[in-house]
Amino acid sequence: MEVQASAREMGPPELFVDRLSLRLRRQAFWDRFLVLFPPLSVLSYLSFYLGRAAWFGQEALFFSGIALAGIALILMGLRFFFGKPKASLAARFIDEKVAAEERFLTLTTLSPAHSPGPLVARLRQEAAAFLDRIDLRRDFPYRVKRSFVASLIASLAVILLFHLILLVGAWFAPPIAPTKELLLLSEKLAQVPHLSSLARDIQSLINKFENEKLSGGEKQSLIQELQEKIENQLKVEPQEDQSQKDLLNQAGNALKNLEQGEKQKQEQQEGGGGITTNLPDEGEGQKEKQSKGGGEEEPRDPSLAQSSDAKGGQSAQGETKEPGDAQREGGKGQKTDDKLRDEKQKGKDSDMAKSEHEGKGNVNEEIPQGPPPADRFLKPGEQGEGGVKGARFVTVELPEAEAERASGAGGSAKRKPVQPKLPVSNVPLRQPDSPEASAEKQPLPLEYRGLIR
Amino acid sequence: MKPEEFKKIFFSLEAEVKKIIVGHEDVIRKVVLAFFAGGHVLLEGVPGLGKTLLVKSLSRAVGLSFKRVQFTPDLMPSDIVGTQVLTESDGRREFQFKKGPIFAHVVLADEINRATPKTQSAVLEAMEERQVTVFGETFSLEAPFMVLATQNPIELEGTYPLPEAQLDRFFFKLLVSPPAPSELEEILRRTTGAEEHEAKQVLRKDGAHVIEEMQLLLRQVLIAPPLENYVVRLVHATQPMGSKGSPIVSEVKDFLRFGSSPRGAQSMILGAKGNALVEGRVNVSYEDIEAMLYPSLRHRLILNFQAEAENVSADQILAAVVKKIPRD
Q1: A120 has a chain B CB within 8 A of its CB
Q2: Contact A116/B225, CB-based, under 8 Å?
Q3: B63, B39, B38, B57: which is closest to B212 by C-alpha?
Q4: B322 to chain A nearest CA, in Å?
Q5: Chain A contact set for B281 (CB, 8 A)
Q6: Of A32, A273, A432, B203, which is the most exposed, with the fewest CB atoms less than 10 Å away?
Q7: What is the pLDDT of residue A326?
């Protein structure tokens, strides 16, 4: 009687199975939601981040957000309506829970019309007797699935990886030239009405730097003048407008960088080396030129000087490229920072490879092609300096420290008797009988090395 | 008939048989199950394990007619199904059909593999159609009808192994194993003492009708479609060529020539239904099906040469099948 009473309270077993089925559907919905939520949040975060960093436009961001949300809703909806747990599954869960030996499964899946009524009634009665042993909340609680944890961990890993990539990318990315940075900032400032005059000032400063030949002092004064303007503007900016303050601060920092760069250039010019060449410079004929370009362009990088030297050396041995081209191009001077950086990078790469190649004394040196070496030397009676026809020589004037080391002078040279000397010039040495002849041995031209081997 | 009545009669029968047979509870249960499911049983075991005694005890307990045929190589079909004999009455001579031992409710075909295939096949029609045809005349066998055959697995000389078609007609194949020491002690006590043990008749009046009702109730037991599907998947999985929708079990592929016929699935379900009733349920469970897997299918799997060479039995293959086929 008690069993019948409890069964009446809980309804027929089939209804109970339906209730469990609905509960399982809800749980499946939450499972799906929890699995999808972390990656969707990550996508939203990344979209917002990239949108804020102006990688995406506002409209693209908005529509992609709507599309993402739509896809997520459709997925969850599909899961809820079509991928719903079947009643038979719910019945099996109950059977397993109360050891009902497939009574609920049979009752749920059997067609009563094709089954003997007394047996079905008896089965329903037997199943109802098990109902008071089940409490849906107690026996089928919602538990967070492992898939959610996995999804959460994966999503966090994606965010971490994204920021790591940004960080590493920032380390390896070439620094933006201060003038370019200023140009970008001026464009942003120009969008703010009361800062547009400041933006114009910045643009004019950049134009002056690029188009006019200004002395170091003039440049410094221009920069300082603009810095003062920015500081004044910062003082009058309202406290709550943080984004504009940020912009102004960025502009100030970029100006500081520009100022520092200019100072360093000046210092290099004063104490740094240069390249002396006998090449004609822009139609001025042969004269020695103290190339300012080398010092200005890359005063901190001696490899550039070396590379120029190497290029000059190769050309003297019959290469098609004119020696000192890079220097002459550099000598023309007034080029944008990007161009200079590109050239610098290319030169660095190729020259480093070459210097490495030569430094190791590799026997597989390439033999220069061209006319036979004998034809290229001056014959008796012919006029000319150096002994080689049409030779163009480059003498590299190294910075003091390097020069001392190259010449073997100084205390350190005494302590280290055998020091490889850096080539300072490819000018042929004087004849041994000449009074001006150097005690040094003339290096063997590359052309002969092949013959000797 | 109510399920409780079924259970009561079943246990009474079982108890009466157990009075005579020591041990072999599982064999006894399945023999009685097969009887109520309307199937025939092949008992396989070495001589002296009580196979014949079991069948005799059962037939006595159910109170139905019982005949025993000892199969020998010179046994003729007419010795089983009967023949026309010339009789004389009132001065007139006429042929009259003399019924053979097959015309009984329970028939014991002892050492069935000793008879020639011709004689064995005479039992085929009776087992499947529940009728015999002699000189063009068909005679129906009285229900309930059950053939219990025994065979000795160790003697191969002068035997004729049952053909696959005939094996398939047996509902169950049960393996009778030697008794445990404790069971042997009990056997000795019962058979060497002065006291005689005899099975009592459980069904007194109208026993055949009661058995028919019980057989009907057994067939009415409820089985859920997912469980029927499980049986189908199990039987399909025994096909070495594989079939659509059933996974291929490697043991089946390696050791079987042919898998189970649909009769195997029928046996499993009917046996499972009977088991459910015995367990006091009106619905079949997964356990019922798995309990019936081995007796229903072991004689329906045709092993290949490799299986025989490696001494792999059908039961081992079935164990692999049930392990690999999920319940849902």
Answers
A1: yes
A2: no
A3: B38
A4: 18
A5: 101, 103, 126
A6: A432
A7: 39
- Using CA atoms, how far apart are residues B116 and B120, in angstroms rounded to an integer? 6
DSSP state of A286: B
pLDDT at A33: 84
Predicted ipTM of the assembly: 0.83
Please tell me which residue of chain B has the smallest CA distance to A121. Answer: B282
Q: Is the pLDDT of residue B227 over 90?
A: yes
Distance of alpha carbon A340 from the chain centroid:
20
Q: Is B3 on the interface with A (CB under 8 A)?
A: yes
Tokens 């009661």 belong to residue = B210
Q: State the Cα–Cα distance between residues A59 and B252, nearest whole angstrom.
A: 62
User: Does residue A340 sit in helix, strand or coil?
Assistant: helix
Alpha-carbon span B168 to B235, nearest angstrom: 14
User: At B303, which helix (H) or strand (E)?
Assistant: strand B302-303
Closest chain A residue to B3, measured at CA = A119
* Residue A382 CA, distance from chain mean position: 58
Does residue A126 sit in helix, strand or coil?
A: helix
What are the pLDDT digits (tens) for A353-363?
Answer: 444 444 444 44
Q: Residue B281's closest chain A neighbor by CA?
A: A123
Question: Which pLDDT value is given to residue A116?
Answer: 86
Do A109 and B224 make contact, defined as CB atoms within 8 angstroms? Answer: yes
Q: Which comes out higher in pLDDT, residue A205 or B288?
A: B288
As given in the structure block, the two tokens for residue A142 are: 């919602």
Residues of B in contact with A109 (CB under 8 A): 224-226
Pairing of the two strands B41-44 and B146-151:
parallel
| Amino acid B319: pLDDT | 93
Higher pLDDT: A301 or A164? It is A164
The answer, for A88 touching chain B at a CB cutoff of 8 Å, is yes
| Beta carbons of A106 and B222 less than 8 Å apart | yes
Q: CB distance B222–A109 less than 8 Å?
A: no
**How many contacts does A have with B, using Cβ atoms within 8 A?**
50
Distance from CA of B2 to the nearest CA of A (A): 9
Residues 248-277 of B with CB under 8 A from A: none
CB neighbours (10 Å) of residue A360? 8
- Report the DSSP pairing between strands B302-303 and B82-89: unpaired
Cβ-Cβ contacts under 8 Å, B224 against chain A = 88, 102, 105-106, 108-110
Question: pTM (2 decimals)?
Answer: 0.61
**pLDDT single digits (tens) B51-79:** 888 888 888 888 888 899 999 999 998 89
CB B321 within 8 A of CB B238: yes
Q: CB under 8 Å, gap of 24 or more: what pairs does A365-374 form? A: A365/A446, A365/A449, A367/A446, A367/A447, A367/A449, A367/A450, A368/A314, A368/A317, A368/A318, A368/A319, A368/A446, A368/A447, A369/A318, A370/A317, A370/A318, A371/A318, A373/A445, A373/A447, A373/A448
Task: Give phi and psi for B302, each to the nearest 5.
Answer: -100, 110
